[in-house]
User: Fold these one by one.
Assistant:
Number 1:
Amino acid sequence: QLRLVESGGGLVQPGESLRLSCVVSGSTLDSYTIGWIRQAPGKEREGVSCIRTSEGLTYYGDSVKGRATISRDNAKNTVYLQMNSLKPEDTGVYYCSAEAPIITPQAMCTAHDQYAYDYQGQGTQVTVSS
């Protein structure tokens, strides 16, 4: 059974940076497409960034392009999301989710709001506020 554990969230001021981490256990990292999916109160779920870990193919949502970088360390079974120039609208719970690698990063990140990902962690809260 795949297990995903997120960390790195917190309270930051606008313009600051955060790095979120997702540690994957129960399988090797390069067997999945991994995504950071955020849920903000009153808003639809949003795919922030997704990566096919075997080859490094990535996708970024329009709201974070140029401000976010997704990366992976296969040796540590960890996927990272570096977010810079944070805005109040980046506030939300960030979930690390996993799908079979046949799913492209774009398909994973743009899945409709009710789609149930194969695996998902418990989430980490990010709050951007002055």
Number 2:
Amino acid sequence: QVQLVESGGGLVQAGDSLRLSCAASGRTLSSYTVGWFRQAPGKDREFVATINWSGTLTYYDDSVKGRFTASRDNAKNTVYLQMNSLKPEDTAVYYCTAGVVRMYGSMWRRQSEYDYWGQGTQVTVSS
């Protein structure tokens, strides 16, 4: 079992930056692909970004490409999501998730590919 805890959310203004962290316990995170999803009020949870176990592969939703960057420090058992140039439409609860994900055919976008989920952290971007 892997327990995931997100942190780093908060209230910021449009154009600001935040860095989310996803810390793992229970088992090493280095065996897993880690994804970031978000859920805005009244909307379904959606894919944001993913990073493979070694950090050599990253994929992003078009809505965040060029603004968000996923990274990981396996020695610290932690994955990060650097979010720059934040927009009000980025407002959501952000979840990190881990799993043995098939890294082809956009499978990484599917929530069913991931086995472990954090409780989420709120990001609010004011205009």
Number 3:
Amino acid sequence: EVQFVESGGGLVQAGGSLRLSCAASGFRFDDYYAIGWFRQAPGKQREGVACINCGDGGTHYADSVKGRFTISADNGEMKMYLQMNSLKPEDTAVYYCAADPFKSPLSILPQSPVGSWGQGTQVTVSS
């Protein structure tokens, strides 16, 4: 069974940085899938943050994180990362990773992601 385990979250002051990791078991990142990071803030819907090989096949970021976040993947280690710099209180959310065989655009949540959504990792940014 494919599983994704997110880690690296925590409490950080505004302006700080965090690096999230996503470890995949039973799955290898390759061109057949889009991979991405998503987040869900309290009382809000889950939204796309960044993705690779999604939509038109490129790398895309939500407007709210452009220039601050960087998504990357290490196929050899079967890990995906999200480097988050210049964090803002509005970045506070639970962050999830996922792989999408349909390569949906970032604005559309994967309807049938590979495996199932993990537990996520909590990111809290204090002002």
